[in-house]
């Protein structure tokens, strides 16, 4: 097959490309230039898309003996990922930009271009397993990235390759070292790639400005403080609330809800974060076919953690989910991914965007 290997400049994509070459595929490497400010080098494990990453990707391609190109998708990334992220926070939601990047950039813009150029598949370093069109969790549970791939449609999965999903991360680093790839010991990137300093609140404040509102006690309706914008809060948040007096019971308060129109942030006790029912919109089914009725599953609401048994029911253009055990900190804007337990590894059924939880 003709395979387009997305080389981020990290160890996982490096080994994924190496495995595609070893499998006998005709491989071409491509680095996605997603940032408009690539002049700044990354700092340790923060950020990506820097000159350093592009140079590392080029060196990996050279060692593997494959052609290498850079595709500038910064405009698409800014519109479909960064602006979507900002707009979601302004609307009181908690988005996952990595999930949106996979959906809109890596397996839409890149895959569409790759297919138009005659490639058969796009290869990435995501930790997930894909066998016969069936997407499963990775072997390394601690590195599993199937959650952020649960937005992919059947036609996209038919042209995807995830070669490292059957291997634990330490073994991937060892393999990279044996191959002489300089990315072998490179730190993993963390946090949001386009906010390399990790200051999400500052990033949003710079783009949205101040939108004053009140912090209100959920039980009493008492105004406990003021804030500069709902974009500085997420459901489940405990620190940095700006509340000027302790709770009557002396226990910490948490963000329970965000109302962007009035600018009201509601806070209350930790116990009030638990939910049993989730409503979601825009479902994507990895098989290409929506379930005909209620189905038992395991759901996940965050990239790492937040799992529970559940029964999900497609309703119109959405999904209603009844949880078998309560989950905490479920926020509108998050994705909820659906899994089917299987002895060979949990199967990803699909995902949807959370609109409400109770």
From TrEMBL:
Transmembrane segments: none
Single GO MF descriptor: tRNA-uridine 2-sulfurtransferase activity
Residue span(s) of domain tRNA-specific 2-thiouridylase MnmA-like central: 202-268
Pfam families given in the database record: tRNA_Me_trans (PF03054), tRNA_Me_trans_C (PF20258), tRNA_Me_trans_M (PF20259)
CDD domains registered for this protein in UniProt: MnmA_TRMU-like
InterPro entries: MnmA-like, MnmA-like_C, MnmA-like_central, MnmA-like_central_sf, Rossmann-like_a/b/a_fold
HAMAP family given in the database record: tRNA_thiouridyl_MnmA
The enzyme's E.C. designation: 2.8.1.13
Enzyme class at the top of the EC tree: transferase
Region (Interaction with tRNA): 143-145
Active site (record annotation): 101, 193
tRNA-specific 2-thiouridylase MnmA-like C-terminal domain mapped to chain residues: 276-354
Binding locations of ATP: 6-13, 32, 125
Reaction(s) the record says it catalyses: S-sulfanyl-L-cysteinyl-[protein] + uridine(34) in tRNA + AH2 + ATP = 2-thiouridine(34) in tRNA + L-cysteinyl-[protein] + A + AMP + diphosphate + H(+)
Recorded family membership: Belongs to the MnmA/TRMU family.
Cell compartments where the protein resides: Cytoplasm
Tree of life domain: Bacteria
Interaction with tRNA (site feature) positions: 126, 334
BP-aspect Gene Ontology terms: tRNA wobble position uridine thiolation
Keywords: ATP-binding, Cytoplasm, Disulfide bond, Nucleotide-binding, RNA-binding, Transferase, tRNA processing, tRNA-binding
Name of the protein in question: tRNA-specific 2-thiouridylase MnmA
A GO cellular component annotation in the UniProt record: cytoplasm
Function: Catalyzes the 2-thiolation of uridine at the wobble position (U34) of tRNA, leading to the formation of s(2)U34.
């Amino acid at each position: 097959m003709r395979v387009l290997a997305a080389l981020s400049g990290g160890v996982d994509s490096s080994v994924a490309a190496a495995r595609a070459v070893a499998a006998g595929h005709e491989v071409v490497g491509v680095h996605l230039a997603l940032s408009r400010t690539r002049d700044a080098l990354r700092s340790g494990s923060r950020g990506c898309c820097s000159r350093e990453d592009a140079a590392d990707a080029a060196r990996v391609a050279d060692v593997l003996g494959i052609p290498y190109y850079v595709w500038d998708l910064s405009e698409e990334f800014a519109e479909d990922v960064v602006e979507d992220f900002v707009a979601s926070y302004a609307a009181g939601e908690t988005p996952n930009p990595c999930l949106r990047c996979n959906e809109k950039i890596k397996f839409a813009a890149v895959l569409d271009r790759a297919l138009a150029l005659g490639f058969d598949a796009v290869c990435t370093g995501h930790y997930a397993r894909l066998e016969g069109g069936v997407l499963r969790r990775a072997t390394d549970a601690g590195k599993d990235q199937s959650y952020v791939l649960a937005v992919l449609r059947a036609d996209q999965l038919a042209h995807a390759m995830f070669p490292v999903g059957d291997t634990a991360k330490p073994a991937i680093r060892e393999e990279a070292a044996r191959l002489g790839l300089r990315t072998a010991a490179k730190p993993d990137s963390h946090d949001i790639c386009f906010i390399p300093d990790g200051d999400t609140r500052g990033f949003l404040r710079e783009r949205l400005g101040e939108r004053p509102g009140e912090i209100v006690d959920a039980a009493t309706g008492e105004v406990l403080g003021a804030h500069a914008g709902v974009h500085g809060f997420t459901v489940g948040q405990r620190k940095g609330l700006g509340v000027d007096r302790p709770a009557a019971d002396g226990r910490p308060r948490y963000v329970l809800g965000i109302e962007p129109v009035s600018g009201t942030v509601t806070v209350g006790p930790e116990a009030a974060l638990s939910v049993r029912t989730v409503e979601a919109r825009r479902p994507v089914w990895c098989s290409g076919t929506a379930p005909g009725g209620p189905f038992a599953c395991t759901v996940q609401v965050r990239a790492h953690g937040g799992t529970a048994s559940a029964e999900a029911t497609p309703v119109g253009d959405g999904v209603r989910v009844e949880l078998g055990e309560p989950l905490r900190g479920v926020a509108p804007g998050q994705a909820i991914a659906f899994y089917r337990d299987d002895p060979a590894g949990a199967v990803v059924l699909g995902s949807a965007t959370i609109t409400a939880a109770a």
